[in-house]
# Entry
Amino acid sequence: MCGIVGYIGGEQAAPILLDGLARLEYRGYDSAGVAVYTGEELEVAKAKGRLQVLSDMLQGGRAIQGCTGIGHTRWATHGAPSDVNSHPQVSRSGRIAVVHNGIIENYSALKQFLERQGVPFTSQTDTEVVAQLIEYFYEGDLLQAVGRVLHRIEGAYALGILCADTPDQLVAVRRDSPLILGVGEGENFLASDVTAILKHTREVIYLEDGEVAVLTREGVRCYNHFLQPVEKQTSHVDWEIDAAEKGGYEHFMFKEILEQPEALRRAIFPRVQDGQVCLEDFPLTDEDIQGMRKIYIVACGSSYHVGMVGKYNLEGLLRLPVEVALASEFRYQQPIVDDRTLVLVISQSGETLDTMAALREAKRLGGKVVSIVNVMGSSIARESDGVLYTWAGPEIAVATTKAYSTQLAVLNLLGLYLAQRLGTVAQEEYQTIVQELLLLPAKMEQVLENRADIQYYASQYFNHASVFYIGRNLDYALGLEGSLKLKEISYIHSEAYASGELKHGTISLIEQGTLVVALATYSRLFEKAMSNVVEVKSRGADVLALTTEGHREEMGKVANGLVTIPDTHPMLLPSLGVVPLQLFSYYVALMRGCDIDKPRNLAKSVTVE
Ligand code: AGP
# Structure
């Protein structure tokens, strides 16, 4: 949720830390701070608000001198956003500084223990407990003190630790929260996300849960939870840094919306060979597939909405029950999972804590877990039995766009792959879907070319206080995503309803001028969708409709506004339909002057429960 960077080497640390934090700011942005060893002591600078406040305070980093430091950008969990609650948190002597992502669940008991020993606390954070506890155990060896602390703290954490008595080293720890090490020449890094250090090195070490690392200028040593040395592989990161930069666009979100056709090409094309879907390294044998009795799809937020589309598509293709669960509910609902259940875990970041916990529960129950993940080497990818990467490239905007589209494409590919093995799809139908999948990027480009229409509708409706998205079946699943996109970046209240449910209560909210976005792309239910449009219009609603080219004329007769997408196979309609909805949300948020890439109260990767 928050961002961590650490540096040890021959350069000035503060500018490197600030630059790294700028690339991580999408992970959390209510306050930021750095601690740098100046040659005698730790100098700590922290500021509430965006990173720019801290950067201005430190003149871009020139105001603090020193070649070893840690930095943090925060999304508050314990203690409101404030200077004092920002990280780094320091021990009472000021000689130990800690940056932390995650939550220390037993911090209250530990705090009481330390207070009884006379340790005073200055912040409301759980992180300060870690700094104070390390000092409490410190007897000249930082690693040993950290080791003792690790056996006492519970929860999820990635920690970067710097001690003024041992300034030739940084200590890093991870449990259930991402942390990587960057290996350079005469310098080394730690970071919660590879984007923070990519400018300096492409050689990274992924720490496993419970592992500890000591970084010096010369190298990196890794240990297990009991501080026994462990050998680690270095991985090479091969994507370009400009993939994580705005490249002239005003917002990452807009850039990422436009990148979708290319991202789809990367996700789909290598997986179709001679008209057949090929999934390399798919972990299930044909026998496993034949034995499958049920599929569970588990995810959060937009990834869950991908799962909702997946339910319709996979049930149609496989004739197997597909259940979609919110990851945050899954492990508390006594899910029925066994070794004949395929559990599909969907996560852009691969680090969402709820999704991770659901994955572990599914494995514990004997399910076979295949994940659909964007971030290579992420925790979910590593703990799954198999992983299908979405290859969307780095997604920086908090509101997901290209990750959604590629997740959907990969899920459809997986559906085809399984259906062929189960013999539940006719060859002709299979070929049609595969062909349409290959055409999807070009069709999406057509949708993007018509964005001026959507911008116009955004200008008509951006002042509305409340928006309803209605649709049936696949259009309902699509509406869930459209509605989430709008509310998360424009702060307009919005809800998605299955159209047939309107008459069971929600229609009472429709009055003169209420904006209803009617999704009517699914041909089979078009007539019913039309009836719902007429129904809400007769109660005074303003209807902005989304349908396919083939239905343009008919829908044009009743809707107040109309956006169309090219015709395609029904399974793929949400893949095209989502684009106008993303653009609509984007333009509305732009016109309302919202902070599009960093919406309030949110963060890109949610590593707390
Ligand atoms: C979508 O725009 C969101 N910001 C959010 O719902 C996101 O999809 C959710 O937090 C899940 O994230 P993940 O895919 O990284 O697990």
Summary: The chain has a mean pLDDT of 93.
